[in-house]
Amino acid sequence: MSHLITDNLSLATYCQNAAGQRALAVDSEFIRQSTLYPKLGLIQLFDGKQLALVDPLTITDWQPLIQLFADQSIVKTLHSCTEDLEALATIGIHHIQPLFDTQLAAELLGWGSSIGYAKLVERATGELLDKSESRTDWLARPLAEKQLQYAANDVTYLLPLYQHLMAQFTEPSLLPLLLAEGQQLQQRRANPLSPRLKYLEVKNGSLLRSRELAVLRELVAWRLEYAAKRDLALGLVIKDFQMLELAKRKPGSVESLLNIPGMTGRDLRRHAKPVIELIELAKQLPQEACPQPFYHTDHFAGEKVVLAELGHCLKEAAAQTGIPVAFLSVRRQLHEYFNWCWRVTEQERVLLPVPEYLTGWRQQLLLPLLPVPAHVQNLVKNFL
After folding, report:
1. Please, which residues bridge with residue 24 across strands?
2. The HRDC domain covers which part of the protein (predicted)?
3. 150 catalytic, yes or no?
4. Has 101 been annotated as catalytic?
């Protein structure tokens, strides 16, 4: 039976009791429809004895939970935890260690890529989970009993799933890789990409020329600042494809902004002035201050060729180590290494985080196989 926690004392008592357990299942429910940051609606905890549903709308002292999550003697298990980490960070929880992600564990064991929680539970335990309440407004109060039961199920089966997966780790070298990955996820959250470099994450931005990239850089940084101050989803400020068009066309008047696809009168009233000013700023930059299009790099074979070569290296590493490609690398890590090596200027490179291919356990496994362009070889040697 689950216990709804709505006050600080009850949360502190639960955390004190859970401190004696070896593992803790954790999940969260949140809403993120039109905001930049998730709105936390519920936290589910199960220590194997007592299941708690914590109401974040009424709790004011999170220190007991912060301490519990940082307790190294208790394994915290979550499923596909990236968004949960972001939601929990909104109440000051930034360190969950050790962290065992069941989706990553399944990938490392070769069960497949990005397996959903319900499918994983069914495979491991045979239980079929009811997902009918997945679209619940978790900020509404009171929550119905059916909604609370749905939330409770997300951790009721998570602990047995963790135990089942743990039993599969018969190779001693694999579990440390999984736990290291849990730490890496949190380190990346603690060191986000600089707003001035966020343009690197815009899809198809790599097709732009130098001056166009300068415009895109200004627009992306401005959009993030605007959205963060107002807690607005980025797409509600201005969409990626619109920024790409603005970067290509570089309009200099309100009238010319009307030719940008999807640009509405409301957009013009809100953003015309700063957008035009930012475009003009980028147009006036000296050439050396503009981003460098990667396709102008000396001896560059082409994006598709290099990405294909990187993909081949990952497959070779997987064949040599027995670690599935799905765990060795996700698409973000692949493009992170590609951008760092081929797409940025020297000045931008020093501001970027070191690619995960060049840190931790991945460095040892991947670096002997990775293509390293001549202009960063000395820098890469410093990481060895």
Report:
1. 76
2. 209-289
3. yes
4. no
Q: What CATH architecture does domain 298-381 belong to?
A: Orthogonal Bundle (1.10)
> In sequence order, what E strands does 67-138 have?
75-78, 99-101
pLDDT per position as a tens digit, 333-376: 999 999 999 888 888 898 999 999 999 999 999 999 999 998 89
The reply to whether the predicted model has a pTM over 0.90 is yes
Q: Identify the active-site residue in 14, 47, 55, 84.
A: 84
3-state secondary structure of 34: coil
From 14, 27, 162, 267, the catalytic residue: 27
Q: CB under 8 Å to 286, separation ≥6 — which residues? A: none
Q: Tell me the pLDDT tens digit for each residue of 292-342.
A: 875 545 556 678 888 999 999 999 999 999 999 999 999 999 999 999 998
The CATH number of the structural domain formed by 2-190 is 3.30.420.10
Cα dihedral sign for 121, 122, 128, 132? positive
84 is catalytic: yes
Instruction: Tokens for 362, please give them.
Output: 């991945």
225's tokens: 């600042």
- For 363-375, letters b (16+ CB in 10 Å) and e give bebbbebbeeeee
Which residue out of 101, 107, 154, 348 is catalytically annotated? 154
